[in-house]
């Protein structure tokens, strides 16, 4: 793709979101340059509560299969006998992040049929947001789903703003794909800002620290060496540079302001989704606005013909492989470990091998280990559990004594 097109897409996202925020905040448009050139580098060492990482604090272990589609999400429209099916699935690890933007596109397609009653297939992140957007347009909506929260794949997601995570394979990158992604990304980002601060904190922002013994150059060399030694390992597209300004930029920290005794430390801010609270918010929205939920399993497309609605929005994720014969769907396994919640820990922590998120329902640990592409194994891998514990225990131990918020601990 031409560099000027990439720059245009990135600037379009940045400018639109920034100006929207400024106008709502009472700033004049000509203040844009001054505001966004202001440095956010910390001037003093932050105070952080100690993180407690140990096996005896584990309260649950979960395994889920990301609904990855090699060419990216499917938002096509097809006819099924007398019915119209609008697809909305295949987002890989970016389902929660892109749900509002993707569902808006799917709803726009569905509304073109002129129907007043709609069926939504699936009750995950995409199904719930699709239903809400239809209900907000005054339509009658019934969700048909095999399971609901917490027995669905969306319920065992990491719960972090990651709109570029496993969006498509790198070989399918294109200007059209980037524009498609960017539109969903901006729409979703703006939607989430109106959920920050609601009861239960369904969405919130948190500082995140990355600590390492290796420089960026060393880490890049190791990644390239890994792919060279494992040519069959999939490489995913990365569009994050198009929307990097939607999250505050990363800062490199060094003494005396770095809170960790590691040679390479950086800090950024991440948007978190507290899945339980957020799912409750979505389900309440659906029911309060008159939506219905029917637990039902579909084994073939023929069974869809029996539904009373003429327009269906398919949000079945991995289920679309069997239900609609989509062979481009590939499961990507993910495993998480949750520790006893620490309300005083309000920051995330990442290393070369693992990451920690301070969710309200537990301190969430995961690993960046490869080898999960195409796996349908839902059993817990204790080696991954141990890797996450050990990597994050080492990082937590590197917190400087003078940085510890002893009062909060």
Structure in words:
- The protein has 409 residues and is of the alpha/beta class.
- The termini are far apart.
- Strands 1-11-14-13-12-6-8-7 form an eight-stranded mixed beta sheet. The chain has a six-stranded mixed beta sheet with strand order 2-3-10-4-5-9, with helices on one face.
- The longest helix has 23 residues, at 3-25.
- Strand 2 (77-80) and strand 3 (83-87) form a beta hairpin.
- The protein is globular, with a radius of gyration of 22 Å.
- Helix 1 (3-25) packs parallel to helix 5.
- The protein has helices at 3-25, 32-36, 95-111, 125-136, 175-193, 216-229, 275-288, 320-323, 382-397; strands at residues 58-69, 77-80, 83-87, 117-121, 140-145, 203-212, 251-253, 264-273, 292-295, 311-314, 329-339, 347-350, 354-359, 362-367.
- The model is unreliable at 14-39 (pLDDT under 50).
- The protein has nine helices and 14 strands.
Rg from alpha-carbon coordinates: 22 Å
Order of helices and strands: HHEEEHEHEHEHEEHEEHEEEEH
**Fraction of residues in H or I helices:** 25-40%
- State mean pLDDT (0 to 100 scale): 89
**Biggest sheet, in brief?**
8 strands, mixed
Proportion of residues in β-strands: 15-25%
| Strand elements, count | 14
Would you tell me the structural class of the helices and strands? alpha/beta
Number of helices: 9
CA-CA gap between termini:
50 Å
User: How would you sum up the global shape?
Assistant: globular
């Amino acid at each position: 793709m031409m560099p000027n097109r990439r720059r245009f897409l990135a600037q379009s996202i940045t400018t639109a979101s920034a100006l929207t925020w400024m106008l709502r905040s009472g700033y004049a448009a000509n203040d844009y340059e001054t505001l966004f050139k202001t440095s956010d580098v910390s001037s003093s060492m932050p105070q952080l509560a100690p993180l407690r990482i140990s096996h005896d604090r584990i309260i649950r272990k979960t395994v889920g299969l990301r609904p990855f589609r090699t060419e990216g999400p499917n938002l096509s429209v097809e006819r099924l006998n007398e019915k119209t099916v609008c697809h909305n699935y295949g987002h890989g690890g970016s389902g929660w992040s892109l749900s509002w933007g993707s569902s808006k596109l799917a709803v726009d397609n569905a509304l073109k049929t002129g129907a007043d009653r709609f069926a939504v297939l699936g009750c995950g992140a995409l199904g719930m947001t699709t239903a809400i957007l239809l209900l907000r347009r005054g339509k009658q909506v019934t969700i048909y789903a095999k399971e609901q929260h917490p027995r669905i794949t969306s319920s065992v997601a990491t719960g972090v703003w990651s709109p570029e995570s496993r969006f498509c394979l790198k070989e399918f990158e294109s200007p059209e794909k980037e524009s498609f992604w960017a539109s969903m990304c901006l729409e979703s980002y703006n939607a989430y800002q109106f959920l920050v601060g609601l009861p239960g904190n369904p969405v919130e922002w948190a500082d995140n620290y990355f600590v390492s013994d290796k420089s960026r150059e060393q880490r890049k060399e190791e990644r390239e060496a890994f792919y060279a030694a494992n040519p069959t390992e999939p490489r995913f597209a990365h569009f994050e540079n198009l929307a990097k300004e939607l999250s505050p930029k990363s800062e490199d920290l060094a003494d005396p302001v770095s809170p960790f005794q590691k040679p390479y430390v950086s800090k950024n801010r991440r948007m978190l989704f507290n899945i339980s609270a957020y799912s409750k918010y979505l389900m309440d929205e659906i029911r309060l606005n008159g939506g219905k939920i029917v637990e039902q399993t579909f084994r073939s497309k023929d069974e869809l013909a029996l539904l009373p609605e003429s327009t269906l929005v398919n949000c079945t994720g991995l289920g679309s492989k069997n239900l609609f014969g989509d062979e481009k769907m590939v499961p990507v396994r993910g495993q998480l470990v949750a520790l006893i919640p620490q309300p005083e820990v309000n920051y995330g922590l990442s290393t070369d091998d693992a990451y920690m998120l301070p969710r309200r329902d537990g301190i969430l640990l995961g690993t960046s280990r490869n080898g999960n592409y195409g796996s349908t194994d839902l059993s817990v891998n204790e080696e991954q559990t141990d890797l996450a514990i050990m990597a994050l225990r080492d990082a937590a131990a590197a917190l400087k004594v003078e940085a510890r918020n002893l009062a909060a601990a």
